[in-house]
Amino acid sequence: xxxxxxxxxxxxxxxxxxxxxxxxxxxxxxxxxxxxxxxxxxxxxxxxxxxxxxxxxxxxxxxxxxxxxxxxxxxxxxxxxxxxxxxxxxxxxxxxxxxxxxxxxxxxxxxxxxxxxxxxxxxxxxxxxxxxxxxxxxxxxxxxxxxxxxxxxxxxxxxxxxxxxxxxxxxxxxxxxxxxxxxxxxxxxxxxxxxxxxxxxxxxxxxxxxxxxxxxxxxxxxxxxxxxxxxxxxxxxxxxxxxxxxxxxxxxxxxxxxxxxxxxxxxxxxxxxxxxxxxxxxxxxxxxxxxxxxxxxxxxxx
Length: 302
Known about the structure:
Layout: E1 2-5, H1 15-22, H2 28-36, E2 40-42, E3 45-46, E4 58-61, H3 66-74, E5 80-84, E6 88-93, H4 108-115, E7 139-145, H5 148-159, E8 164-172, E9 179-182, E10 185-188, E11 194-197, E12 208-216, E13 219-226, H6 233-240, E14 269-277, E15 283-287, H7 292-301
Parallel strand pairs: 7-14
Antiparallel strand pairs: 1-4, 2-3, 2-4, 5-6, 6-7, 8-13, 8-14, 9-12, 10-11, 12-13, 14-15
Helix pairs in contact: 1-2
């Protein structure tokens, strides 16, 4: 059992939010389930999800069942190595694999740590080496830092928006423009997912650019570039643009009249290109090709 004492700066925080801050490898949903299951105690008493903490409270966390963890970890899928540099790695994450550990389920970061143990200590704990993330059902190219000096170097480029990130996406509907910029701000909605709203609304600035690659009947194939890196940015922006991504079960129209073209079991969104400056100041780019299941889906549309 782990015990965390509540300090002065943490008083009046809600229990589930407090746990996310202290042990970020697990999601809010995970902690809420643990609290409801009686596996989190406050001063040795069963706690409530929305309980507010007081200074000197003792939060006790019972151990999660190893049987559950082992079952989850056995289903973990392997990544594909595209390029290896002494300072960084370029890998392909398959759809269905987490970028980093969440809710006790291992992700790409855990697999990388086993293969490249020197990554431990680079970046943030439980997500060593990870400098950006892809959603579980999104596949494609992902950059991983191997050294602290490169981690600092690349994080600065992300902050200054100098990293090129291109995605391939199939969306519902026929977009008439050849290209466009989407500049809705993004904020968290009441139900937990992200919502894109008009620029004058409250939220974080977000810019997405797209170019049309091909038109199909009822669908449009896009190359999408994100100029900011907000959570679920492309998915929220395309929904707000009234052209949600095929296969997205979260960011979709309530009454979608166009049928799904393929039974993918995932979202049609693929991280295609990442470009940045290496430690020598050279501009480099790496590409991940469209997975077979997405290629086959496009063939059905022709």
